């Protein structure tokens, strides 16, 4: 009799412990970053890009949140849109960070198509219950004032329409600093490792709100 009671108690304790573990896992938000070279550590040592710094920050703060970096150098909004469904199914994130669009502009792709792709990505993520953070960019002045304005504004347009969080300019304090070339690699497109703490500082306030 005692032995049966002991076994039942042990099994019950194990079940409760497992349930607590699964509960913590379920409540721990997973952050999925879908971006291009600016998030994929192009030209940088591994572990020095803003996504890696984010992961380090979360661990230092003992946050239960985890990070999955699904960024690919050279990716466009069309590429991100095409692979998002699989990423959502595989990782089941609580937060999706979309950092795409720069390569669309650099290749002269239709801004209307860029906007449509971002809308589709935001909607797909939100349908799974995930919160969305859209990371905006700006084009260099040589692309023309009108084009640059249209490009930067499309991020705010999508964020407002889809009710997502927004970082207006990922490279604030980097591309518009006193010496814009000082924080960029030789190609003058990709930031150096020393710029990525500033990039994270731009993104973190909005991302932090989504983790609460």
Number of domains: 1
| CATH superfamily annotation | SGNH hydrolase
CATH topology: Rossmann fold
Mean of residue pLDDT? 89
Structural class: alpha/beta
What best-fitting shape do the alpha-carbon axes yield? Answer: globular
What are the secondary-structure elements, in order, as H or E? HEHEHEHHEHEH
Radius of gyration: 21 Å
> Biggest sheet, strands in spatial order?
2-1-3-4-5
Quaternary structure: single chain
Low-confidence blocks of residues: 9-26
- Helical content band: 40-55%
How many strands, what sense, and barrel or not for the largest sheet?
5 strands, parallel
Which strand-content bin applies to the residues?
5-15%
The total count of strands amounts to: 5
InterPro entries: Ester_Hydrolysis_Enzymes (IPR051532), SGNH_hydro (IPR013830), SGNH_hydro_sf (IPR036514)
Signal peptide: 1-25
Pfam families: Lipase_GDSL_2
Keywords: Signal
Structure description:
With 212 residues, the protein is an alpha/beta fold. The chain has a single domain (29-210), classed as 3-Layer(aba) Sandwich (Rossmann fold). It is 50% helix and 11% strand. The protein contains seven helices and five strands. It has helices at residues 2-27, 50-60, 77-91, 102-106, 111-127, 145-162, 196-210, and strands spanning 30-35, 66-69, 95-99, 131-135, 165-167. The protein has a five-stranded parallel sheet with strand order 2-1-3-4-5, with helices on both faces. Helix 2 (50-60) packs across helix 7 (196-210), helix 3 (77-91) packs parallel to helix 5 and helix 5 (111-127) packs parallel to helix 6 (145-162). The longest helix is centred in the N-terminal third of the chain and has 26 residues, at 2-27. It is globular and about 45 Å long. The chain starts with a helix and ends with a helix. Residues 9-26 have low confidence and may be disordered. It comes from Ottowia flava. Residues 1-25 form the signal peptide. This is Arylesterase.
């Amino acid at each position: 009799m005692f032995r049966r009671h002991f076994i039942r108690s042990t099994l019950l304790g194990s079940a409760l412990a497992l349930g607590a573990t699964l509960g913590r896992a379920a409540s721990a938000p997973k952050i999925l970053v879908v971006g291009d070279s600016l998030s994929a550590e192009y030209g940088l040592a591994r572990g020095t890009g803003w996504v890696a710094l984010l992961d380090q920050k979360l661990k230092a703060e003992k946050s239960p949140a985890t990070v999955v970096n699904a960024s690919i150098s050279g990716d466009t909004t069309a590429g991100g849109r095409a692979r998002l469904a699989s990423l959502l199914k595989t990782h089941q994130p609580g937060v999706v960070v979309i950092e795409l669009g720069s390569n669309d502009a650099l290749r002269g792709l239709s801004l209307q198509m860029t906007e449509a792709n971002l809308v589709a990505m935001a909607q797909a993520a939100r349908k799974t219950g995930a919160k969305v953070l859209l990371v905006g960019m700006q084009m260099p002045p040589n692309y023309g004032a009108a084009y640059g304005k249209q490009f930067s504004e499309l991020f705010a347009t999508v964020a407002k329409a889809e009710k997502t969080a927004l970082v207006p300019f990922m490279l604030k304090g980097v591309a518009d600093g006193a010496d814009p070339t000082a924080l960029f690699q030789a190609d003058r497109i990709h930031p150096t490792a020393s710029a990525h703490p500033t990039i994270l500082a731009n993104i973190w306030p909005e991302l932090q709100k989504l983790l609460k």
